[in-house]
Amino acid sequence: AMLRLRLLTWDVKNTLLRLRQPVGESYAAEAWAHGVRVEPEALSRSFREAYRAQSQRFPNYGRGQGLSSQQWWVDVVKQTFRLSGVHEDRVLTLIAENLYHDFCSARNWEVLPGASETLSQCCQRGFHMGVVSNFDNRLENILSQCNLRHHFEFILTSEDVGFAKPDGRIFKKALRLSGVPPELAAHIGDDYTRDYKAARAMGMHSFLLQAAGQGTEPEVPPEHILPMLSHLLALIEK
């Protein structure tokens, strides 16, 4: 029987968009433009450490602690370079501010295979569509630059809403905006806890994007797994 759905909500990072290259490569190129040599691999490792520490100390881009997300990111970038042995503050500030703006553009992001076509088909079928993403407020601009913004009636980021997935309140806001009850809504994302489980806890349907060969969580029935985005409509209409 075909699922009766009226609303589809979408995660973005690694669901619709992905980084064109590892973070360390982008950071190393920007540093090099300022005459600073750092290995991309070292920067990638330092970035993971700096990002994790900052996320623990200031969750959701410091939204509840009076930080702007721009300041949050500038601090992450500077700390990434410090952990990699670069300490000259004036250069770090320049690098960090340039990178903050760079990651707002299609230069650093690419659309995942099948994403544009799938979103277009879903719009043609008349689904209400929105984004529910743990992202800062650059997201709307990034989606515009990557030519995906027009598919969505609303863009909810954790920074704007003040709650990050798996907190159900960000999904509740999406349901309220579209006026659709949870049993007529489905969320699509690549993270078991933040996307699949969180949406289901709100009474929504959910599909987990998971490339073949990735280990699946035992609790996810095969008809909820998307090996590729292009499989979505077949699963909904089956």
Automatic annotation (TrEMBL):
<dbReference type="InterPro" id="IPR006439">
    <property type="entry name" value="HAD-SF_hydro_IA"/>
</dbReference>
<dbReference type="Pfam" id="PF00702">
    <property type="entry name" value="Hydrolase"/>
</dbReference>
<dbReference type="InterPro" id="IPR023214">
    <property type="entry name" value="HAD_sf"/>
</dbReference>
<dbReference type="InterPro" id="IPR036412">
    <property type="entry name" value="HAD-like_sf"/>
</dbReference>
<dbReference type="InterPro" id="IPR051828">
    <property type="entry name" value="HAD-like_hydrolase_domain"/>
</dbReference>
<protein>
    <recommendedName>
        <fullName>Haloacid dehalogenase-like hydrolase domain-containing protein 3</fullName>
    </recommendedName>
</protein>
<dbReference type="InterPro" id="IPR044924">
    <property type="entry name" value="HAD-SF_hydro_IA_REG-2-like_cap"/>
</dbReference>
<dbReference type="InterPro" id="IPR011949">
    <property type="entry name" value="HAD-SF_hydro_IA_REG-2-like"/>
</dbReference>
<dbReference type="GO" id="GO:0005634">
    <property type="term" value="C:nucleus"/>
</dbReference>
<comment type="similarity">
    <text>Belongs to the HAD-like hydrolase superfamily.</text>
</comment>
